[in-house]
Amino acid sequence: MNYLKRVSVLGLLFAFGIGLAPAQAPDNTKVNERDKAKSQPTADQAKNAATDRNIMQEIRKAVVADKSLSTYGHNVKIISQQGKVTPKGPVHTDEEKKNIEAKAVEVAGAGNVTNMLEVKGDKAR
What we know:
- The protein starts with a helix and ends in a 6-residue tail after the last strand.
- It has helices spanning 2-15, 29-36, 50-65, 71-74, 94-108, and strands spanning 77-81, 84-91, 116-119.
- The protein is of the alpha+beta class.
- The chain is built from five helices and three strands.
- Strands 1-2-3 form a three-stranded mixed beta sheet.
- It is globular.
């Protein structure tokens, strides 16, 4: 009987596509090419100044604490250089984009945030 249960479970997993490789691997080539440009802020450019570290830490705490954000939203990059903040990366919705920008503005102040978040528009969460 145990053998039949295992076979049934495996059959269901394969029938619903669980455990199968995705049809196409993710491709970040365009984003990676864009980020090579010297004018594009990247996380490794963030300085080690205490004020920038504190700004990034406070924004990151606010983003991670917001359970309404998707995994993409929780994983955006937060870059601070001399008090200027750039949130960067993909999010699922325009609402997430605005939400994360608002958190950055709350910490860094109006006029100190350049929102480079990109809406994928593929799903809400």
